[in-house]
Every structure is written in structure tokens, then in C-alpha cells.
Amino acid sequence: MSNNSLNPLYFQLTLFSDYGPLRYLFFSLCLLVYMTIISANAVIILTVFLEKSLHQPMYIFICCLSLNSLYGSAGFFPRFLMDILSDTHLISRPFCFIQIYVIYTYASNELTILGIMAYDRFVAICQPLHYHSKMTFRMVRHLLGFAVLYPAFACGLCVYLSVRLPLCGNKLHRILCSNWSVVRLSCVDTTVNSIVGRILTLTTVFLPLLFVLYTYLHILLVCSRSSSEFRGKALQTCLPHILTFVTFSFSLFCELSLSRLEAHQVNPFVIVVLSLEFLIIPPINNPLVYGLNLPQIRGVVFSSCIKTSHKTKTLLFRSKALLEYVDFICTHD
């Protein structure tokens, strides 16, 4: 068997179809979604970065969620938009593994960040007197370092084990590259990949999920013994995080279930929808939930919009006055 057949230079994404002129409509809609993701998350990042009153652990973690959304979207949308317009849907072997690494680290980063956000809320509600001594900026740096470095190492190991496999095919029944879809093409035994994959899934997915559930169980117990005013304030700060956590967990569960099923067992439309849900809904949901539900961020955003609108009106008024003055001078010369 030739080296190229064992290590194909390209993978073919087989779920793309020729929709004729409709491709331009799909392209426009997906481009609009991508621009919305970039704009919404950029607003959150700039708001937290520029407003000094938001330089607190909770808002720093929210900013990191938005940065991670931009990172994950950049690993999917540019290539996806090209594929919509293309007649051939081939992706080079190196770029396929890069896409796998980016998307998997995006998913893992999201869970670890949600985990440290749950810890932040746990300390703030259950141990309020120790919050400032525990959630120092040094601790925030350490938590964020762990939230980024561990997924980078875990996903790097997973991708490395897949890269070294000899492959007996190049067709992926997906609209994007996924690790298990590539592993299934292997000509040799993949027991090591399967075991390592399950261990890493346990540590990067299920442990953060269990930790979040554990922290919120304690928060509920504390709230049940507290006043209604305290419960209201706790709910106001925890509700956005709960909504984000539930949305992302559902999307991730669908993606994990999808990756383990045989291609012929699932309708192609379902595969496309679940793949897009995993990469579209959380990046849009995060800035909307935090931007609309947290009064601190909402207030700063609205205030900035009002100031920008006022400056624009002032600039337009001055420009109009200047034009009228120039016109007056010209007519009297």
C-alpha cells in the first residue's frame, strides 16, 4: 500500500451538497451569524477592558468566555464559509488536525472557565467574608492559567495520537474535522486512542461538569437558609452562569453523542444541525446572557451607546453648520 493511501494529503468532507444559487443565501446567513458573534463578544471584551469598575474576577472570567468564543469561531467559520461556496470540499491533512485542536481546546476551555466561574460564585455566596482574600488577582491568574494550559496539553496529546495513525481512507462524514471521525479511518488498532480519549473526556468534560453541579448544590443549600433578599441577589448573579452552563452542556452532549455514532445511523441533516449548534449557540448566547442580565455590564454598554450617539449627533450638527457656513461664504463671494 502506498504512503499516500496510508497518510492521505487531504480529507473530503462529504456532508456538503451542491445547492446551486442557494449557496449564496446560505453563505450570507452564515457570514451574518459570524459577524454577530464577533461583534457581540467584542462588545463584552471592550466593555470589561475599558471600564475600571468591571476589573473584578467575575467580569474577567466573562471576558475570557468571550475571548474563547472568538477563538473557537475562528477555527470553524472561515473554512466553513469557503466550503459553502466551493465545488470541492477537500481540507488538507495539517489544517484538518489544526481545526480539530482549535475546536477541542475551545470546548475544553469553555468548561474549565465555567468551572472556575462556579467556584467564584461559590466563594462569593457561601464564604462572602473570605471572598477578597481568596479571589485575589494572583489566584485569578493561576485559575485562568490552569483553565487554558490543561486543555491545551490534553487536546494536544489527543491530536498527537491521531496524527501518528496510518489511515485507509480520507472521507469524513461531517462538515468539519473531528478527532473520532479521523481515528475511524485508521488501518491499525486504535485501542490506545480510545482509552486516552475516554480518560481525557472524563477529565476535561465530566469533572468540570460535576464540579459545577457540586458548587451550585452548596449555593442552593445556603440560599435555602437565607433571606428572600439574599436569594434574589444570589439568583441575579448566578442565573446568567446557569443559563450558559446548561446551554453549553446540552450542545456539548449532542456533539459527544454524535461523534460516537456510526455515520449511517444518523440523518445527515441532524449531523449538520448538531455540529452548527455546538459552534454557534454558545458564542451568541454568552454575550447576550451576560450583557442583558448583569446590570453592571448592561449599564456600561447602554451608557457607552448613549455617549456615542450624542457625540455622533454633535459631530453631524457641527458638520452641517460648517457646510452651511462654507455655502454662505461661496454665495457671497
UniProtKB/TrEMBL annotation:
<keyword id="KW-0716">Sensory transduction</keyword>
<feature type="transmembrane region" description="Helical">
    <location>
        <begin position="97"/>
        <end position="119"/>
    </location>
</feature>
<keyword id="KW-0552">Olfaction</keyword>
<keyword id="KW-0297">G-protein coupled receptor</keyword>
<feature type="domain" description="G-protein coupled receptors family 1 profile">
    <location>
        <begin position="40"/>
        <end position="290"/>
    </location>
</feature>
<feature type="transmembrane region" description="Helical">
    <location>
        <begin position="234"/>
        <end position="253"/>
    </location>
</feature>
<dbReference type="InterPro" id="IPR000725">
    <property type="entry name" value="Olfact_rcpt"/>
</dbReference>
<dbReference type="GO" id="GO:0005549">
    <property type="term" value="F:odorant binding"/>
</dbReference>
<dbReference type="GO" id="GO:0004930">
    <property type="term" value="F:G protein-coupled receptor activity"/>
</dbReference>
<keyword id="KW-1003">Cell membrane</keyword>
<keyword id="KW-0807">Transducer</keyword>
<keyword id="KW-1133">Transmembrane helix</keyword>
<keyword id="KW-0675">Receptor</keyword>
<keyword id="KW-0325">Glycoprotein</keyword>
<dbReference type="GO" id="GO:0005886">
    <property type="term" value="C:plasma membrane"/>
</dbReference>
<protein>
    <recommendedName>
        <fullName>G-protein coupled receptors family 1 profile domain-containing protein</fullName>
    </recommendedName>
</protein>
<keyword id="KW-1015">Disulfide bond</keyword>
<feature type="transmembrane region" description="Helical">
    <location>
        <begin position="199"/>
        <end position="222"/>
    </location>
</feature>
<dbReference type="GO" id="GO:0004984">
    <property type="term" value="F:olfactory receptor activity"/>
</dbReference>
<feature type="transmembrane region" description="Helical">
    <location>
        <begin position="140"/>
        <end position="163"/>
    </location>
</feature>
<feature type="transmembrane region" description="Helical">
    <location>
        <begin position="57"/>
        <end position="77"/>
    </location>
</feature>
<dbReference type="InterPro" id="IPR052921">
    <property type="entry name" value="GPCR1_Superfamily_Member"/>
</dbReference>
<keyword id="KW-0472">Membrane</keyword>
<dbReference type="InterPro" id="IPR017452">
    <property type="entry name" value="GPCR_Rhodpsn_7TM"/>
</dbReference>
<keyword id="KW-0812">Transmembrane</keyword>
<dbReference type="Pfam" id="PF13853">
    <property type="entry name" value="7tm_4"/>
</dbReference>
<dbReference type="InterPro" id="IPR000276">
    <property type="entry name" value="GPCR_Rhodpsn"/>
</dbReference>
<feature type="transmembrane region" description="Helical">
    <location>
        <begin position="265"/>
        <end position="284"/>
    </location>
</feature>
<feature type="transmembrane region" description="Helical">
    <location>
        <begin position="24"/>
        <end position="50"/>
    </location>
</feature>
